[in-house]
Amino acid sequence: MQKKQLIECVPNFSEGQDMNIITQITDEIEKIEGVKLLDVDPGKATNRTVVTFVGEPEPVINAAFLAIKKASEIIDMSKHSGEHPRMGATDVCPLVPIANISMEETVKWAHKLGEMAGRELDIPFYMYEYASTKPEWTNLATIRSGEYEALADKLTKPEWKPDYGPSRFNPQAGATAIGARDFLIAYNVNLNTTSTRRANSVAFDVREAGRVKRKGDPITGEIVKDENDNPVREPGACKSVKGIGWFIEEYGVAQISMNLTNINDTPLHIAFEEVCKSADKRGLRVTGSELVGLVPLKVMLDAGHYFLKKQQRSTGVAEEEVIKIAVKSFGLDELTPFDPQKKIIEYQLAADEPTPLIEMNLRDFANETASESPAPGGGSISAYVGSLGISLATMVANLSSHKRGWDDRWEEFSDWAARGQQIKDALLKMVDEDTNAFNAIISAFRLSKGTQEEKTARSKAIQAATKYAIEVPFRIMELSLASFEVTKAMAEMGNPNSVTDAGVGGLCARAAVHGAFMNVKINSADLKDKDYVAKVMKAASEMIEKADQFEAEIREIVDKRIDG
């Protein structure tokens, strides 16, 4: 089955104060079927709203077109003022590849949007970033130079002929930049000052472009120039980071406003730390920060792990705890509440999915298992038992990393706990995956078998679903077997007060391997590819032997440590 292509659209509208106007624009977006509105983030001081929505490419550009059209009708740029640079009612409209789509394909969709909007609307459109048609227009700041106030003059010059739309000034709508870009994080860091100049000094220390080099005094000194009479710049600390300082009257503080254009070059937590360093050097203090729009889950997990390591705490804790540490470390809830379910893109995308088994409480899960429905069945229960086993071993690792007198070993046990968390999370996913595999078989059997062509298609679907129903419990076996390494290590050298927890973890892992093997065997009987079945059964049988051996070794270790 071909995977669904997803792109994200993050238009910025030059209105952040009148929610009636903002709602009219977002209503247009929500008219389009197949588009999910993820976030609406208005800023009063910037008088700008960042909207985030996602979907397959065609619905997304249709929704973007309607939003641009509506904004041009109800926002009057001749009356607009705000802290953020801007040139149009819809200032920018970038498309971002999210899943199963290349940047090259995303660029094509950006140009389809530009062509459609340029044909239908009386607005000049410039293409930027990966969609740019001129090297100098790759940089949005170049296109937006002079902002709205410079447009009337710029549009009279041949070099400023837009990519789409008319070469004439639209006083109400201004101009719009449409682009294709990598995931960008808009991020503001709060300072305990009201001085824009001091905030800018910090921004210049951090951003990649840095500051103009001067002789003597860094503010008033003579500008240093190169052999071509161009100003020499001193680069800042963070690659792929743009930044300025400003004062936000709404909050009564100055901020460093940053765009992180490549989080592989500079992760969010590194940008934050560099701001803290610069602020401290200048007698300032970071009091918190805010994310504008959404952020990928990995960014928050990387940050949480970074701050846990700084505290010399185990990183092998649950995802929810890691995110909580990141939120508190960044101070993301200083100005407004921060809800991970609304601000993390993966959580937003999962919000409309059916509630998975692993989201149930223990009683509901047990009741669902005991009900008349054949799913969840033995495979799901095996995965869950396996997850409980490795959870116990991970608990021992975390307790060991905090044991008094073992402070010099915290990192060693943290590594074991992190490994355990990975296995636990993978097994929890298998709880629902096994039920999905069962449902796939049922769906295949329900396919029509009227014509010969339908019979052939049905047979292929049944065989594909059956193979899937073998692969899932086989993977449960592999993961549960892998958990023994962590469990045995914790039985041998973990906190002695928790040695029996490691022992129970070993028993759970053995039960999970044996339970999943039963599903592998019963589903293999219906698969026609006997060479594949023979290969799988051989590997599965070897895992059974290893699981029995590991569990026996762990029980012996536990008994010896209990007996002293």
Keywords for this structure?
3 domains; Alpha-Beta Plaits; 17 helices; Formiminotransferase-cyclodeaminase, Chain B, domain 1; about 575 residues; 4-stranded antiparallel β-sheet; 7-stranded mixed β-sheet; alpha+beta; 13 strands; about 15% strand; Four Helix Bundle (Hemerythrin (Met), subunit A)
- The domain count comes to 3
Q: How confident overall, as mean pLDDT?
A: 93
Tally of separate helices: 17
What is the CA-CA span between the terminal residues? 57 Å
- Most strands sheet: 7 strands, mixed
- The chain-level structural class is alpha+beta
Written description of the protein model:
With about 575 residues, the protein is of the alpha+beta class. The chain folds into three domains: about 5-180, 2-Layer Sandwich (Formiminotransferase-cyclodeaminase, Chain B, domain 1); about 185-350, Formiminotransferase, C-terminal subdomain (Alpha-Beta Plaits, 2-Layer Sandwich), CATH 3.30.70; about 355-564, Four Helix Bundle (Hemerythrin (Met), subunit A), CATH 1.20.120. Helices cover about 50% and strands about 15% of the residues. The chain is built from 17 helices and 13 strands. Strands 1, 2, 3, 4, 5, 6 and 7 form a seven-stranded mixed beta sheet that branches. It has a four-stranded antiparallel beta sheet with strand order 11-12-8-13. The protein has a two-stranded antiparallel sheet with strand order 9-10. The longest helix has about 40 residues, at about 450-495. The radius of gyration is 29 Å and the shape is globular. The chain starts with 5 loop residues before the first strand and ends with a helix. The relative contact order is 0.07. The model has no long low-confidence stretch (mean pLDDT about 95).
